Amino acid sequence: MYGSGNQPVIVLKEGTQRSKDKEAQFNNIAAAKAVADAVRSTLGPKGMDKMLVNTIGDVVITNDGVTILKEIDVQHPAAKMVVEVAKTQDTECGDGTTTSVVLAGELLKQSEELIEANVHPTVITNGYKMAANKAIEILDKIAVDAKNDKILKQVAATALTGKSVGDEENYLADIVVKAAKAVADKGAVDAKNIRLQKKVGGTIADTEVVSGIVVDKERLHSRMPEKVEKAKIALFSCALEVKKTEFDAAIQITDPTMMSSFLSEEENSMKAMVEAIKKSGANVVYCSKGIDELVQHYLAKAGILAYRRCKSSDLDAIALATGATICGNVMEITSKDLGTAGCVEEKKIGEDGMSFITGCKNAKAVTIFIRGGTEHVLEEVERALTDAIRAVGVALEDGKVVAGAGAPEIEVELALIDYASSVGGREQLAIEKFAKAMEIIPWTLAENAGIDPIDSIIKLKNAHEKKNAKAKYFGLDLDSGEAVDMLAKNVIEPLRVKSQAINSAEEVCNMILRIDDVIASRRAPPAPAASDALANGPRGMGGGPIM
Predict the structure, then answer these.
(1) What are phi and psi of 40, to 5 degrees?
(2) Percent of the chain scoring above 70 in pLDDT
């Protein structure tokens, strides 16, 4: 920047990087497209997986869009905004994260031609906003009611397709619907009430629904009962041990009898804890902290089943399922604090014992107990089931579903092309580009399945332009490459997955397009390590270190 006397006026700090106008817009678009391209190959049932290795060597193998983007350490600010789209989609719907990111990337790609042709970004964003609103209207019109369990099962199966669950999609879909229906309250499904507990061993087909809670803990003492019927459960967030003093204390003992009375007092205080538990009527104890060996002995003697060092989330789940209150003081427990369950049983799973709490009356809590050959398989099945549970929950809540496999995107594209001509003006150009961007989903599905994408798009458009009653449900069959009625083929997705993907993609796209100036401060150099600081520290007159 120069003043009136052609003297440079320095406004920004030295080292600050600045890009303006088209340069800034194209840089941001390139970064967002790079993120979309990173996950594109994972879209659909024929999508590939990614192996992600973090800085400490942990490996994640997945094709879940949001997991991939969370694991990648994205630096560019515009790229981070696209990652947020996936996170929002995951929070709202659980499924469709890759779809939303790929769509956002394509909308930005389509806008490049308009920016090159000097169409103002505000015109593009207005056109995109109008197109997104119209697209949601169109989706509402082509949606069908999710009337029964059969449709919900199809929604779950579609969400599981392409994940690493082998041939067990239908079996797992049944499990998901059963779990969702068990915790549904007035049509709403709280996914927190469906716990996922995994254990290496067996196969995916050994996965089961447990009507209650599964805790990955073994009983503390071999003499404790393995099974307790009509369980009364006490939950503790405090240790069942003698409290250590907060300050260092020294006890001077001058007489052997004093030593004896000191130890017996400690023993009595532990006995008192067990007596308080017995008096309340509890016959099962779960504790989030430690349990002293002497307390274990007295609990076993009293026939009380006990578990220690349980996760706080486990205690919360047990409290919700059984109606127990988590106590912070053993001596204050009463019968009112206890939870009830039909049975608490320890079962051997592989070499380890696990605690199964079942028969909880009026409980809105179930556990899906996942089995699989390796830790990586278990983690991917867990991610797949999480997506499917949210998808079924969304379908139950909204009561609306649409056909999958690119059918709604082509229907929206054709309707938007008609709508664009009725709008006119420069916004028409943006709406037409939005319509063109919708093709990216069936295009990518075909590409990932090894089918010619151009032929696929032509076949889909021909099928949809016939305008018969079922034309709007025609999607791409990835086995034959033909346009097929996807409702009949049982490929169904919740309406919210599609509408949320379009809305969030449009919003992030418009936010990026409105940026015309990027000012990036110079990063502070990393602080020197302690050893470097010493090596390069103050020196004496002769260049040697000061002693």
Answers:
(1) -55, -40
(2) 83
d(CA 100, CA 455): 24
Nearest-angstrom CA–CA distance, 438 and 502: 9
Cα distance between residue 412 and residue 284, in whole Å: 58
How confident is the model over 283-307, as pLDDT tens digits?
888 888 888 888 888 888 888 888 8
Is residue 525 within 8 Å of residue 109, measured between CB atoms? Answer: no
Choosing from 90, 337, 387, 477, the catalytic residue is: 387
In angstroms, rounded to a whole number, what is the distance separating the alpha carbons of residues 495 and 498? Answer: 6
Considering the candidates 42, 64, 95, 337, report the single residue annotated as catalytic.
Answer: 64
Q: Is 257 a catalytic residue?
A: no
Catalytic: which of 98, 125, 161, 358?
98
DSSP-assigned letters across all residues of 227-286: EEEEEEEEEESS-BSPPPPSS-------SHHHHHHHHHHHHHHHHHHHHHHHHHT--EEE
Quick one: DSSP state of residue 21?
H
The pTM of the full predicted model, rounded to 2 decimals, is 0.75
Q: Where in 181-226 does DSSP place strands (E)?
A: 194-200, 208-210, 212-215
Tell me the pairing of strands 366-372 and 194-200.
parallel
Out of 42, 97, 207, 322, pick the active-site residue: 97
Helices 97-116 and 77-92, packing angle to 10 deg: 140
Active site residue 477: no
Tokens standing for residue 203: 């196969």
Q: Residue-wise over 501-518: b if at least 16 C-beta within 10 A, else e?
A: bbbbbbbbbbebbebeeb
Distance from C-alpha of 391 to C-alpha of 156, rounded to nearest angstrom: 7
Distance (Å, whole) CA 455 – CA 39 = 23
Tens of pLDDT, residues 9-23:
556 555 555 556 667
- Catalytic residue list contains 358: no
Annotated active-site residue 99? The verdict is no
What's the angle, vertex CA 165, arms to CA 164 and CA 167, rounded to 5? 125
The reported pLDDT for the residue numbered 540 is: 45
pLDDT of residue 340: 84
* Residues of the chain where predicted confidence (pLDDT) is lower than 50: 530-531, 533-535, 537-547
